[in-house]
Amino acid sequence: MKLAKRGVVTSTVKKIAKDEKVNAERVRNGVAKGKIVVMEKGEEVCGIGAGLRTKVNANVGTSTDFARVEEEVRKVKAAVEAGTDTVMDLSTGGNLEAVLKRIIRASRVPVGTVPVYSAFVNSFKKGELPREEDILKAVERHMQLGVNFVTVHAAMRRKGLDLTKSRIMRIVSRGGCMLAAWMMKNEKENPLYTNFDYLLELAEDRDVILSLGDALRPGCLSDSTDRAQMHELITQGELVKRAHERNVSVICEGPGHVPIEKIEANIMLQKKICSGAPFYVLGPLVTDIAVGYDHISSAIGGAIAAKAGADFLCVVTPSEHVALPRVEDVVDGVVAMRIAAHAADIAKRMDNEVDLEMSKARAELDWRKQFDCAIYDKKAREYRKKRGSRSRACSMCGDYCAIKIMKELEGVSAHSKDEQYRPGKH
Ligand code: SF4
Question: Which EC number applies (predicted)?
Fold first, then answer.
């Protein structure tokens, strides 16, 4: 941000502008104003924010029940192959630092983490709560290990925590609940809030993006857009200003569970209160009863949110609320959220070139080209291979393929207007 404010167009900004087919000066200006954040990992660059393609993040990570590093590495690779823009390691099981190192190595795309997990999980193993300095050290350690962005739930304050008392589901954020326990036991303000200047110093030194977590995000439709959520949002706005003054790029995290009619208002409020900082929404899920299919519920919410201005969508998998996802669940979640992001981008930027190519390929029954245009072709290729058709059509309509019939009719009418059409004859 410091370089962008000075008018320097860095190589990262140039690469992002080229990838996104936008003017590099526009990206620089967005970074300078805090409306765009940029990340780089090896050859990969990722820009998130105003005027750029909507990005998608996939969560991976061990739990206390399943602490299998190899499986998490497979999830990272599958999520990247399915097109996720970033990956977050949310591990809470096993040796957390060893897992994070493996995930950073395995991921081609930028990596984010929630460092408070390390501080709390390591202390819980000893039967105690972490000290304030343990929490800050965990943030520093993750930055040292080379992550691109860290979630810090710095905007949850004592007052906001009190406001959750009237909720159906008080706190559903894992990091938020750990910090809430610390605040309640110690009867103190959130250490990430009171030490925010120190976090900015760390982020500035290491050029790491701070993602302001939403510890008080609603966990059900009934709690959506309530006073606790708004209290945290207002504090996020204050922290965004302090970060921008210090030249630290920040993202704001947001809900959660939100009924469709409130999504647009949530995005407008965040953009206004948080000075246009990129908005990272966790879904949002538009119904509480899609258990087993929450990737669909969140993709519906994600598409509406992105159309209204959200910049970064967090993947929700089909196993959300029930179990740690498997590799295939992560892939289904990534693809669902990429569809949501792309659908919103079409509406926002009329970026529908590939959709037009797909339509032309469909009209020609050109299967190879259709798979090339697909957002993720693996499943479609499998269907075609296993349940294809004897003819150029597919087995959905077989001989009665409307596209094939209309093409043949065009051929017939070009030769003889009177010739009767019969399926299969042509
Ligand atoms: S068979 Fe039916 S579903 Fe398949 S390509 Fe033809 S019209 Fe489309």
Answer: 4.1.99.17
Mutate to test the pocket of ligand 1, among 362, 366, 396 (most ligand atoms within 8 A of CB): 396
**Where in the chain do CATH 3.20.20.540 domains reside?**
53-349
Task: End-to-end CA distance of the chain: give it in Å, rounded.
Answer: 64
From ligand 1's centre to the CA of 400, what distance in Å? 8
Separation in Å, CA 209 to CA 72, 111, 150, 153, 351: 23, 11, 7, 13, 28
Residue type, 370: Q
How close is the Cα of 105 to the center of ligand 1, in Å? 43
CB 365 within 8 Å of CB 403? yes
395 CA from centroid of ligand 1 (Å) = 7
Two structure tokens written together for 301: 């919410």
Q: Phi and psi dihedrals of 392, rounded to 5?
A: -70, -20
Shortest-distance Cα residue to atom 6 of ligand 1: 401
Q: Specify the residue with its C-alpha closest to ligand 1, atom 8.
A: 401
Q: Which CATH class is domain 53-349?
A: alpha beta
Ligand 1 centroid, distance to 405 Cα (angstroms) = 10
E strand or H helix at 173, and its extent? none
How many residues are present in the chain?
A: 426
Q: Indicate which atom in ligand 1 lies nearest the CA of residue 365.
A: 5
The residues, ordered by sequence, that sit 6+ positions from 250 with a Cβ below 8 Å of its Cβ are 34, 37, 209, 210, 211, 212, 239, 240, 243, 244, 277
Q: Which residues are near ligand 1 (CB < 6 Å)?
A: 393-394, 396-397, 401-404
**386 CA to middle of ligand 1, Å?**
16
Query: In this structure, what DSSP letter does residue 149 have?
Result: E
Predicted confidence band at 420 (pLDDT cuts at 50, 70, 90)? very low
Q: Using one digit for the tens of pLDDT, what is the confidence trace for 191-226?
A: 999 999 999 999 999 999 999 999 999 999 999 999
Q: Which residues pair with 41 in a beta bridge?
A: 44
Mean pLDDT of the chain: 94
Q: What is the pTM of this model?
A: 0.94
